[in-house]
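Sample pair:
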Amino acid sequence: MKKLIVVLGLTGTGKSKLGVYLAKKLNGEVINADSQQIYQGLDIATNKILDKESQNIPHHLIGFLDPLSHKHYTKENYLKLFKLKLKKEINFNQEKDFISNIEYSLLTKIDPELANKIHPKDSRKIRRGLEFYQQNRKKLSDVQKELNSDVPSFRFDCLFLWVDCEQKILDFHLDSRVDEMVDSGLQNEILFMHNKIKENEKEVDFSDGLFQAIGFKEFKKYLEVYDKYQENQNNQHNQQEKFGKENIQHNQHNQHNQQEEFGKENIQNIQNIQNNQNNQNNENIQNIQNIQNIQNNQNNQNIQNNENIQNIQNIQNIQNNQNIQNNQNNQNNQNNQNNNQNNENIQNNQNIQNNQNIQNIQNNQNNQNNKNIQNNQNNQNNHSK
């Protein structure tokens, strides 16, 4: 029996990502069951999975219905397409069919109520019904009634995964998703769909089909204001065109009447006026040329003045450089004089110091000599005694 994983959950709980993950791990494919994503258009509003997010996993029953042609798409319509897609597009592993028409016919005779609940190709449940009757001589449907366990029959062996999320986390995630939708161009997408509806002269029912999608009906008031604005713009444009055409026709009519009324004389007057205008234009051109010549002369004079100013600045720069050089020379001379004076002072100080040292040495020698003389005298006196 074919196996099928059904991913359920609230909007924004990560069903699409989980579906891709499971299909990649189990080498499977994804069948869309979202009631809005089956329609063409509003990809951002319905949060259709992107190509890069699908990771090359085949996705089926997404964006295949025209929302303007299939407003009321029922569950029965979807199931028919679902079965058709299973046969044409989904590559399940081939399984050997052990159930023959005879076995199913036998079940319909033994337990017709059970047979009506089971698909003719559901070999597992058909065998279970036949084996139960063979072992117990009772209908399985009767036992199910007694136990009050009327278990629904599925065509596939299903595993149901309900994706849940804490409300605070879900609210935060949905708020972020709305911001991403707006940044991705939600407004332009809605205006495109709105204009498409107007072009096809269709009425929108915000409670049915694609147009009940979250993110479209919330723009209803905005679209109404947008329509009024577009209508005013169109009316204004039409009025301008109408007013322009009327003025052109009126002017042409008046001109024709004037030419017929005044005849050749007025035509000559018009020609004279045109000649006068031409003469006036020639004078204006000459005046403009004279003004240009004056401006050119002024420009030349300005250029000469700029050159003179530049020359004066150059002379001033030369004089400044000379003054700076003279100041530097004077400073150097002054420094040399100061150095010479310092050298003389140093030499004089050294001479004075040397003289003082010589004097001290002489004094010391004299003192020593005096001491020696005194000592000799003392020695002589002592010797005499």
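The mean pLDDT is 77.
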